[in-house]
């Protein structure tokens, strides 16, 4: 209904134009020159402003709700992005563990310490785009590593073994061989001390 009022008011000034042509032309160019025209223009502008305030008041809750939904969606996207990053990091860590385990398994036969093998290799180079591990590439690199650093290799079986310690050899401090029982050793020492040796 307020739109109809505006329409009727807009028609009213047009009907007044033919009656007072010289004043209407000046009023048309400057509506504030005539106090009556200025009052009508002010009333028209007030009604128009009231209409826009009402519309703005009606639309404000909707705008607030849209902003909340946008923020909720944004935070949901951020949460999903964080989950994706964490999943990618976990997958990469699992791949690295799998490659290290494969390197250790393949190095166990030739390396003195299989853990040394993966320390000298770039493990990322052995993971394909599909996530598969290149075991042939690992074998080749381990062979090259042993050529560059032969000290990492297991000693050959023909090398002499170091002697194992034998406690029965050598003196026990008094020239007599004794048992390894601490009580017997103490009793022997006490007997020697009492006999004056």
Topology pattern, helix = H, strand = E: HHHHHH
Oligomer: single chain
Mean pLDDT: 76
Structural class category: mainly alpha
Strand residues, percent: under 5%
Spans of at least 5 consecutive residues whose pLDDT stays below 50 are: 1-21
In DSSP terms (H or I, runs of 4 or more residues), the helix count works out at 6
Percentage of residues in helical conformation? 55-70%
DSSP summary, beta strand count: 0
Distance between the termini: 132 Å
Instruction: Please state the overall shape, judged from the principal axes of the Cα atoms.
Output: elongated
Largest sheet: none
The radius of gyration computed from the alpha-carbon positions, rounded to a whole number of angstroms, is 49 Å
Secondary structure: elements and pairs:
Elements (H helix, E strand, L loop, with lengths): L1 H15 L4 H9 L5 H73 L6 H6 L15 H14 L33 H14 L2
Helix pairs in contact: 1-3, 3-5
Tell me what the structure shows.
This protein has 197 residues and is mostly helical. Helix content is 66%, strand content 0%. It has helices at residues 2-16, 21-29, 35-107, 114-119, 135-148, 182-195. Helix 3 crosses helix 5 (135-148). The longest helix is centred in the middle third of the chain and has 73 residues, at 35-107. It is elongated.
What can be said about this structure in brief?
The protein has 197 residues and is mainly alpha-helical. It contains six helices and no strands. Helix content is 66%, strand content 0%.
């Amino acid at each position: 209904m307020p739109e109809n009022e505006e329409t009727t008011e807009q028609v009213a000034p047009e009907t007044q134009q033919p009656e007072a042509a010289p004043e209407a032309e000046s009023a048309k160019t400057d509506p504030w020159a005539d106090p009556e025209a200025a009052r009508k223009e002010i009333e028209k502008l007030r009604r128009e402003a009231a209409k826009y305030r009402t519309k703005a008041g009606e639309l404000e809750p909707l705008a607030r709700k849209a902003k909340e939904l946008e923020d909720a969606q944004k935070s949901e996207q951020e949460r999903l992005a964080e989950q994706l990053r964490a999943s990618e990091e976990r997958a990469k860590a699992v791949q690295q563990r799998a490659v290290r385990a494969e390197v250790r398994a393949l190095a166990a036969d030739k390396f003195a310490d299989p853990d040394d093998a993966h320390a000298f290799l770039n493990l990322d180079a052995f993971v394909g785009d599909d996530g598969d591990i290149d075991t042939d590439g690992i074998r080749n690199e381990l062979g090259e590593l042993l050529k560059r650093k032969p000290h990492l290799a297991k000693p050959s079986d023909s090398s002499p073994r170091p002697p194992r310690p034998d406690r029965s050899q050598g003196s026990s401090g008094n020239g007599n061989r004794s048992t390894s029982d601490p009580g017997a050793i103490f009793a022997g020492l006490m007997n020697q001390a009492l006999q004056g040796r």
